[in-house]
Amino acid sequence: MPASRILVWGAGAIGGTVGAYLRRAGHDITFVDTDAAHVAAIARDGLRITGPIEQFTVRAPAFTPADVTGVWDRIFLCVKAQHTRAASEALAPHLAPGGYVLSLQNGLCEEVIAGVVGPERVVGAFINFGADWQAPGEVQFANHGAVVLGETDGRMTKRLSALHAEMLEFAPHAIMTDDIHGYLWGKLGYGILLFAQALGQLGIADCLARPELLPLWRSLGAEVNAVAAALGVQPRGFNGYDPAAFRPGASEAAARESVVAMVAFNRPNAKTHSGIWRDIAVRKRTTEVDAQIAPIAAIGAKHGIPCPVTQRLVDMIHAVEQGRLPQADANLDALMRG
Ligand SMILES: NC(=O)C1=CN([C@@H]2O[C@H](COP(=O)(O)OP(=O)(O)OC[C@H]3O[C@@H](n4cnc5c(N)ncnc54)[C@H](OP(=O)(O)O)[C@@H]3O)[C@@H](O)[C@H]2O)C=CC1
Ligand SMILES: CC(C)(CO)C(=O)C(=O)O
Protein backbone atom coordinates (compact mmCIF):
# COMPACT_ATOMS: atom_id res chain seq x y z
CA MET A 1 0.00 0.00 0.00
CA PRO A 2 1.42 3.46 -0.88
CA ALA A 3 2.39 5.60 2.13
CA SER A 4 -0.22 8.17 3.12
CA ARG A 5 0.37 11.55 4.70
CA ILE A 6 -1.86 12.07 7.75
CA LEU A 7 -2.03 14.76 10.41
CA VAL A 8 -3.26 13.33 13.72
CA TRP A 9 -4.86 16.15 15.72
CA GLY A 10 -4.99 15.07 19.36
CA ALA A 11 -2.23 12.53 20.09
CA GLY A 12 -3.70 11.06 23.29
CA ALA A 13 -5.13 7.58 23.81
CA ILE A 14 -6.94 7.27 20.49
CA GLY A 15 -4.85 9.49 18.21
CA GLY A 16 -1.63 8.15 19.70
CA THR A 17 -2.64 4.52 19.20
CA VAL A 18 -4.00 4.83 15.66
CA GLY A 19 -1.19 7.18 14.62
CA ALA A 20 1.52 4.89 16.02
CA TYR A 21 0.15 1.83 14.22
CA LEU A 22 -0.11 3.70 10.92
CA ARG A 23 3.38 5.15 11.39
CA ARG A 24 4.75 1.66 12.05
CA ALA A 25 2.99 0.49 8.86
CA GLY A 26 5.08 3.06 6.95
CA HIS A 27 2.73 6.03 6.66
CA ASP A 28 3.87 9.63 7.01
CA ILE A 29 2.27 10.65 10.32
CA THR A 30 2.53 14.02 12.05
CA PHE A 31 1.09 14.52 15.55
CA VAL A 32 -0.45 17.71 16.95
CA ASP A 33 -1.45 18.10 20.59
CA THR A 34 -2.05 20.97 23.00
CA ASP A 35 -0.16 19.12 25.77
CA ALA A 36 3.29 20.69 25.31
CA ALA A 37 5.06 18.11 27.52
CA HIS A 38 3.54 15.24 25.51
CA VAL A 39 4.54 16.89 22.23
CA ALA A 40 8.10 17.49 23.48
CA ALA A 41 8.41 13.86 24.62
CA ILE A 42 7.18 12.50 21.24
CA ALA A 43 9.46 14.83 19.30
CA ARG A 44 12.45 13.91 21.48
CA ASP A 45 12.02 10.18 22.20
CA GLY A 46 9.20 9.02 19.93
CA LEU A 47 5.72 7.81 20.89
CA ARG A 48 5.73 4.66 23.01
CA ILE A 49 2.84 2.18 22.81
CA THR A 50 2.63 0.05 25.94
CA GLY A 51 0.15 -2.46 27.33
CA PRO A 52 -0.79 -6.10 26.87
CA ILE A 53 -1.22 -6.12 23.09
CA GLU A 54 2.08 -4.81 21.73
CA GLN A 55 4.92 -2.61 22.88
CA PHE A 56 6.78 -0.49 20.37
CA THR A 57 8.02 3.05 19.78
CA VAL A 58 7.55 5.12 16.65
CA ARG A 59 9.38 8.23 15.58
CA ALA A 60 7.23 11.00 14.12
CA PRO A 61 7.18 14.79 14.09
CA ALA A 62 5.00 16.35 16.80
CA PHE A 63 3.87 19.93 17.27
CA THR A 64 1.57 22.06 19.34
CA PRO A 65 -1.24 23.70 17.29
CA ALA A 66 0.62 27.01 17.31
CA ASP A 67 3.77 25.49 15.81
CA VAL A 68 2.48 23.18 13.11
CA THR A 69 2.82 24.39 9.52
CA GLY A 70 1.61 22.90 6.23
CA VAL A 71 -1.50 21.50 4.62
CA TRP A 72 -2.77 17.91 4.69
CA ASP A 73 -5.38 16.05 2.63
CA ARG A 74 -6.35 14.02 5.70
CA ILE A 75 -6.58 15.02 9.31
CA PHE A 76 -7.65 12.51 11.98
CA LEU A 77 -9.37 14.41 14.80
CA CYS A 78 -8.95 12.61 18.12
CA VAL A 79 -9.73 15.13 20.87
CA LYS A 80 -12.39 14.83 23.56
CA ALA A 81 -15.82 15.86 22.30
CA GLN A 82 -15.89 19.18 24.19
CA HIS A 83 -12.71 20.27 22.38
CA THR A 84 -14.06 19.51 18.91
CA ARG A 85 -15.05 23.01 17.88
CA ALA A 86 -11.82 24.68 19.05
CA ALA A 87 -9.72 21.94 17.46
CA SER A 88 -11.70 22.10 14.18
CA GLU A 89 -11.16 25.85 13.98
CA ALA A 90 -7.44 25.43 14.66
CA LEU A 91 -6.97 22.61 12.14
CA ALA A 92 -9.04 24.17 9.34
CA PRO A 93 -6.12 26.19 7.85
CA HIS A 94 -4.14 22.94 7.59
CA LEU A 95 -6.85 21.04 5.68
CA ALA A 96 -6.54 20.96 1.87
CA PRO A 97 -9.64 22.22 -0.01
CA GLY A 98 -10.45 18.71 -1.27
CA GLY A 99 -9.33 16.97 1.91
CA TYR A 100 -11.28 15.66 4.88
CA VAL A 101 -11.30 15.33 8.65
CA LEU A 102 -11.91 11.86 10.09
CA SER A 103 -13.58 12.07 13.51
CA LEU A 104 -12.17 9.34 15.77
CA GLN A 105 -14.31 10.31 18.76
CA ASN A 106 -17.34 9.45 20.85
CA GLY A 107 -20.46 11.60 20.55
CA LEU A 108 -22.01 13.44 17.63
CA CYS A 109 -18.82 15.34 16.76
CA GLU A 110 -19.14 14.98 12.98
CA GLU A 111 -21.86 17.66 12.97
CA VAL A 112 -19.66 20.09 14.89
CA ILE A 113 -16.69 19.52 12.57
CA ALA A 114 -18.95 19.90 9.53
CA GLY A 115 -20.08 23.27 10.87
CA VAL A 116 -16.48 24.46 10.69
CA VAL A 117 -14.96 22.78 7.60
CA GLY A 118 -18.12 21.91 5.62
CA PRO A 119 -20.06 18.61 5.57
CA GLU A 120 -18.33 17.28 2.45
CA ARG A 121 -14.97 17.49 4.25
CA VAL A 122 -15.94 15.17 7.14
CA VAL A 123 -15.82 11.38 7.42
CA GLY A 124 -17.34 9.64 10.44
CA ALA A 125 -16.08 6.83 12.60
CA PHE A 126 -17.27 4.75 15.52
CA ILE A 127 -14.55 3.25 17.71
CA ASN A 128 -14.73 0.95 20.70
CA PHE A 129 -11.15 -0.17 21.26
CA GLY A 130 -9.62 0.81 24.60
CA ALA A 131 -6.57 2.99 25.18
CA ASP A 132 -5.23 5.32 27.88
CA TRP A 133 -2.76 8.20 27.87
CA GLN A 134 -0.24 7.25 30.56
CA ALA A 135 2.50 9.89 30.58
CA PRO A 136 4.18 12.30 28.16
CA GLY A 137 5.18 10.21 25.13
CA GLU A 138 3.36 7.06 26.33
CA VAL A 139 -0.04 5.62 25.44
CA GLN A 140 -1.36 2.24 26.54
CA PHE A 141 -3.24 0.26 23.89
CA ALA A 142 -5.41 -1.85 26.18
CA ASN A 143 -7.85 -3.85 24.09
CA HIS A 144 -9.29 -4.35 20.64
CA GLY A 145 -12.88 -3.30 19.95
CA ALA A 146 -15.17 -2.42 17.06
CA VAL A 147 -13.95 0.10 14.47
CA VAL A 148 -16.45 1.31 11.86
CA LEU A 149 -15.94 3.98 9.19
CA GLY A 150 -18.65 5.74 7.21
CA GLU A 151 -19.50 8.80 5.16
CA THR A 152 -21.97 10.99 7.03
CA ASP A 153 -24.39 10.84 4.07
CA GLY A 154 -24.07 7.06 3.80
CA ARG A 155 -22.39 6.99 0.38
CA MET A 156 -19.81 4.27 -0.24
CA THR A 157 -17.06 6.41 -1.75
CA LYS A 158 -13.56 5.84 -3.07
CA ARG A 159 -12.05 7.86 -0.23
CA LEU A 160 -13.91 5.69 2.29
CA SER A 161 -12.54 2.49 0.71
CA ALA A 162 -9.01 3.92 0.69
CA LEU A 163 -9.33 4.94 4.35
CA HIS A 164 -10.71 1.53 5.26
CA ALA A 165 -7.79 -0.24 3.56
CA GLU A 166 -5.38 1.84 5.66
CA MET A 167 -7.32 1.37 8.89
CA LEU A 168 -7.05 -2.41 8.46
CA GLU A 169 -3.36 -1.95 9.25
CA PHE A 170 -4.41 -0.89 12.73
CA ALA A 171 -7.67 -2.80 13.19
CA PRO A 172 -7.92 -5.88 10.94
CA HIS A 173 -11.63 -6.22 11.81
CA ALA A 174 -12.51 -2.60 10.84
CA ILE A 175 -15.58 -2.32 8.61
CA MET A 176 -17.23 0.29 6.40
CA THR A 177 -20.89 1.22 6.81
CA ASP A 178 -23.59 3.20 5.03
CA ASP A 179 -25.11 3.90 8.46
CA ILE A 180 -22.51 5.64 10.61
CA HIS A 181 -25.24 7.48 12.53
CA GLY A 182 -26.67 4.12 13.62
CA TYR A 183 -23.28 3.21 15.09
CA LEU A 184 -22.73 6.62 16.69
CA TRP A 185 -26.10 6.36 18.42
CA GLY A 186 -25.29 2.77 19.36
CA LYS A 187 -22.14 4.07 21.05
CA LEU A 188 -24.19 6.76 22.83
CA GLY A 189 -26.50 4.02 24.15
CA TYR A 190 -23.50 2.07 25.44
CA GLY A 191 -21.60 5.21 26.43
CA ILE A 192 -24.37 6.41 28.72
CA LEU A 193 -23.88 3.22 30.77
CA LEU A 194 -20.19 4.10 31.05
CA PHE A 195 -21.04 7.60 32.27
CA ALA A 196 -23.13 5.98 35.01
CA GLN A 197 -20.19 3.66 35.81
CA ALA A 198 -18.02 6.76 36.24
CA LEU A 199 -20.20 7.88 39.16
CA GLY A 200 -18.74 5.00 41.18
CA GLN A 201 -15.50 3.10 41.70
CA LEU A 202 -16.15 -0.34 40.25
CA GLY A 203 -14.70 -1.03 36.82
CA ILE A 204 -16.89 -1.44 33.72
CA ALA A 205 -17.35 -5.22 33.99
CA ASP A 206 -17.98 -5.26 37.76
CA CYS A 207 -20.32 -2.29 37.59
CA LEU A 208 -22.41 -3.65 34.69
CA ALA A 209 -22.56 -7.01 36.49
CA ARG A 210 -24.30 -5.59 39.58
CA PRO A 211 -27.67 -7.41 39.18
CA GLU A 212 -29.66 -4.79 41.10
CA LEU A 213 -28.67 -2.13 38.54
CA LEU A 214 -30.43 -3.82 35.61
CA PRO A 215 -33.41 -1.41 35.85
CA LEU A 216 -30.96 1.53 35.62
CA TRP A 217 -29.34 0.16 32.45
CA ARG A 218 -32.81 -0.42 31.01
CA SER A 219 -34.10 3.08 31.73
CA LEU A 220 -30.96 4.81 30.42
CA GLY A 221 -30.96 2.60 27.32
CA ALA A 222 -34.66 3.19 26.71
CA GLU A 223 -34.23 6.98 26.84
CA VAL A 224 -31.32 7.00 24.36
CA ASN A 225 -33.12 4.63 22.01
CA ALA A 226 -36.34 6.68 22.15
CA VAL A 227 -34.44 9.86 21.24
CA ALA A 228 -32.59 8.09 18.41
CA ALA A 229 -35.92 6.77 17.09
CA ALA A 230 -37.33 10.32 17.08
CA LEU A 231 -34.45 11.26 14.77
CA GLY A 232 -35.18 8.27 12.54
CA VAL A 233 -31.97 6.51 13.62
CA GLN A 234 -31.87 2.83 14.51
CA PRO A 235 -28.86 2.35 16.80
CA ARG A 236 -26.48 -0.47 15.87
CA GLY A 237 -24.99 -2.99 18.28
CA PHE A 238 -21.40 -4.09 18.88
CA ASN A 239 -19.17 -5.89 21.42
CA GLY A 240 -22.09 -7.25 23.45
CA TYR A 241 -24.24 -4.11 23.40
CA ASP A 242 -27.59 -4.89 21.72
CA PRO A 243 -29.64 -1.69 21.37
CA ALA A 244 -32.82 -3.67 20.64
CA ALA A 245 -32.58 -5.13 24.16
CA PHE A 246 -32.82 -1.63 25.64
CA ARG A 247 -35.61 -0.23 23.46
CA PRO A 248 -38.72 0.94 25.29
CA GLY A 249 -40.82 -2.19 25.81
CA ALA A 250 -37.94 -4.67 25.33
CA SER A 251 -37.96 -7.57 27.80
CA GLU A 252 -35.91 -7.68 30.97
CA ALA A 253 -34.44 -11.00 29.80
CA ALA A 254 -33.12 -9.42 26.60
CA ALA A 255 -31.45 -6.60 28.55
CA ARG A 256 -29.94 -9.09 30.99
CA GLU A 257 -28.53 -11.13 28.10
CA SER A 258 -26.90 -8.06 26.56
CA VAL A 259 -25.46 -7.02 29.93
CA VAL A 260 -23.91 -10.49 30.30
CA ALA A 261 -22.36 -10.10 26.83
CA MET A 262 -21.02 -6.60 27.64
CA VAL A 263 -19.51 -7.92 30.87
CA ALA A 264 -17.88 -10.78 28.95
CA PHE A 265 -16.42 -8.31 26.43
CA ASN A 266 -15.05 -6.00 29.12
CA ARG A 267 -13.89 -8.53 31.75
CA PRO A 268 -10.52 -9.41 30.15
CA ASN A 269 -9.69 -5.83 29.10
CA ALA A 270 -6.67 -4.05 30.54
CA LYS A 271 -8.76 -0.89 30.31
CA THR A 272 -10.89 -1.74 33.33
CA HIS A 273 -12.49 1.69 33.71
CA SER A 274 -14.00 4.05 31.15
CA GLY A 275 -12.29 7.19 29.92
CA ILE A 276 -15.01 9.09 31.76
CA TRP A 277 -14.09 7.49 35.10
CA ARG A 278 -10.43 8.17 34.35
CA ASP A 279 -11.08 11.83 33.53
CA ILE A 280 -12.48 12.29 37.04
CA ALA A 281 -10.44 9.87 39.14
CA VAL A 282 -7.05 9.99 37.44
CA ARG A 283 -6.82 13.05 35.19
CA LYS A 284 -8.79 15.26 37.65
CA ARG A 285 -10.67 17.06 34.89
CA THR A 286 -14.15 17.42 33.55
CA THR A 287 -15.68 14.72 31.37
CA GLU A 288 -17.37 14.77 27.96
CA VAL A 289 -20.80 14.78 29.64
CA ASP A 290 -21.91 18.18 28.29
CA ALA A 291 -20.80 17.33 24.77
CA GLN A 292 -22.04 13.74 24.68
CA ILE A 293 -24.84 13.04 27.13
CA ALA A 294 -26.52 16.40 27.75
CA PRO A 295 -27.36 16.68 24.01
CA ILE A 296 -29.39 13.44 24.23
CA ALA A 297 -31.73 15.04 26.79
CA ALA A 298 -31.78 18.30 24.80
CA ILE A 299 -32.71 16.53 21.55
CA GLY A 300 -35.29 14.52 23.50
CA ALA A 301 -36.83 17.72 24.86
CA LYS A 302 -37.13 19.13 21.33
CA HIS A 303 -39.03 16.02 20.27
CA GLY A 304 -41.21 15.84 23.38
CA ILE A 305 -39.37 12.80 24.77
CA PRO A 306 -38.66 13.14 28.48
CA CYS A 307 -35.22 11.90 29.56
CA PRO A 308 -35.35 12.23 33.36
CA VAL A 309 -32.71 9.59 34.14
CA THR A 310 -30.31 10.96 31.52
CA GLN A 311 -30.76 14.46 32.96
CA ARG A 312 -30.18 13.20 36.51
CA LEU A 313 -27.03 11.43 35.32
CA VAL A 314 -25.74 14.67 33.76
CA ASP A 315 -26.43 16.54 37.03
CA MET A 316 -24.70 13.85 39.11
CA ILE A 317 -21.63 13.79 36.86
CA HIS A 318 -21.42 17.58 37.28
CA ALA A 319 -21.65 17.14 41.06
CA VAL A 320 -18.84 14.55 41.04
CA GLU A 321 -16.69 16.69 38.71
CA GLN A 322 -17.11 19.64 41.05
CA GLY A 323 -16.38 17.60 44.19
CA ARG A 324 -19.91 18.09 45.57
CA LEU A 325 -20.43 14.31 45.46
CA PRO A 326 -17.82 11.60 46.11
CA GLN A 327 -17.20 9.14 43.28
CA ALA A 328 -18.94 6.23 45.03
CA ASP A 329 -20.84 3.14 43.92
CA ALA A 330 -23.87 4.17 45.97
CA ASN A 331 -24.37 7.03 43.48
CA LEU A 332 -25.66 4.53 40.96
CA ASP A 333 -28.33 3.31 43.40
CA ALA A 334 -29.32 6.93 44.03
CA LEU A 335 -29.49 7.60 40.27
CA MET A 336 -31.71 4.55 39.83
CA ARG A 337 -34.03 5.50 42.70
CA GLY A 338 -34.45 9.05 41.38
N1 LIG B 1 -9.62 6.24 25.22
C1 LIG B 1 -10.49 5.31 24.76
O1 LIG B 1 -10.34 4.11 25.05
C2 LIG B 1 -11.62 5.70 23.88
C3 LIG B 1 -11.89 7.02 23.59
N2 LIG B 1 -12.87 7.32 22.70
C4 LIG B 1 -13.14 8.72 22.37
O2 LIG B 1 -12.05 9.22 21.60
C5 LIG B 1 -11.93 10.64 21.77
C6 LIG B 1 -10.51 10.96 22.19
O3 LIG B 1 -10.33 10.44 23.50
P1 LIG B 1 -8.92 10.04 24.12
O4 LIG B 1 -7.94 9.77 23.07
O5 LIG B 1 -9.21 9.01 25.13
O6 LIG B 1 -8.56 11.42 24.86
P2 LIG B 1 -7.14 11.89 25.39
O7 LIG B 1 -7.40 12.94 26.40
O8 LIG B 1 -6.31 10.71 25.77
O9 LIG B 1 -6.46 12.53 24.10
C7 LIG B 1 -6.87 13.77 23.57
C8 LIG B 1 -5.63 14.61 23.39
O10 LIG B 1 -5.98 15.81 22.68
C9 LIG B 1 -5.41 16.93 23.36
N3 LIG B 1 -6.16 18.11 23.00
C10 LIG B 1 -7.17 18.73 23.68
N4 LIG B 1 -7.62 19.80 22.98
C11 LIG B 1 -6.89 19.85 21.86
C12 LIG B 1 -6.87 20.73 20.75
N5 LIG B 1 -7.72 21.77 20.67
N6 LIG B 1 -5.98 20.52 19.77
C13 LIG B 1 -5.10 19.47 19.84
N7 LIG B 1 -5.07 18.61 20.87
C14 LIG B 1 -5.96 18.79 21.87
C15 LIG B 1 -5.46 16.52 24.80
O11 LIG B 1 -4.63 17.30 25.62
P3 LIG B 1 -5.09 17.51 27.17
O12 LIG B 1 -5.09 16.14 27.77
O13 LIG B 1 -4.04 18.42 27.71
O14 LIG B 1 -6.47 18.11 27.10
C16 LIG B 1 -5.04 15.06 24.73
O15 LIG B 1 -3.64 14.92 24.71
C17 LIG B 1 -12.99 11.01 22.83
O16 LIG B 1 -14.16 11.44 22.17
C18 LIG B 1 -13.26 9.67 23.54
O17 LIG B 1 -14.53 9.57 24.12
C19 LIG B 1 -13.60 6.35 22.06
C20 LIG B 1 -13.37 5.06 22.31
C21 LIG B 1 -12.39 4.61 23.26
C1 LIG C 1 -14.44 2.27 27.61
C2 LIG C 1 -14.45 2.68 26.15
C3 LIG C 1 -13.15 2.26 25.52
C4 LIG C 1 -15.57 1.92 25.44
O1 LIG C 1 -15.44 0.55 25.59
C5 LIG C 1 -14.71 4.11 25.97
O2 LIG C 1 -15.27 4.50 24.98
C6 LIG C 1 -14.25 5.11 26.95
O3 LIG C 1 -13.24 4.94 27.59
O4 LIG C 1 -14.94 6.14 27.05
UniProtKB/TrEMBL annotation:
Pathway: Cofactor biosynthesis; (R)-pantothenate biosynthesis; (R)-pantoate from 3-methyl-2-oxobutanoate: step 2/2. Keywords: NADP, Oxidoreductase, Pantothenate biosynthesis. Its EC number is 1.1.1.169. Residues 196-321 form the Ketopantoate reductase C-terminal domain. It is an enzyme of class 1 (oxidoreductase). It comes from the Bacteria. Residues 6-153 form the Ketopantoate reductase N-terminal domain. It catalyses: (R)-pantoate + NADP(+) = 2-dehydropantoate + NADPH + H(+). Gene3D superfamilies: N-(1-d-carboxylethyl)-l-norvaline Dehydrogenase, domain 2, NAD(P)-binding Rossmann-like Domain. InterPro entries: 6-PGluconate_DH-like_C_sf (IPR008927), 6PGD_dom2 (IPR013328), ApbA (IPR003710), Ketopantoate_reductase (IPR050838), KPA_reductase (IPR013752), KPR_N (IPR013332), NAD(P)-bd_dom_sf (IPR036291). Belongs to the ketopantoate reductase family. NCBIfam families: apbA_panE. Catalyzes the NADPH-dependent reduction of ketopantoate into pantoic acid. PANTHER family: 2-DEHYDROPANTOATE 2-REDUCTASE, 2-DEHYDROPANTOATE 2-REDUCTASE-RELATED. This is 2-dehydropantoate 2-reductase. It comes from Paracraurococcus ruber.
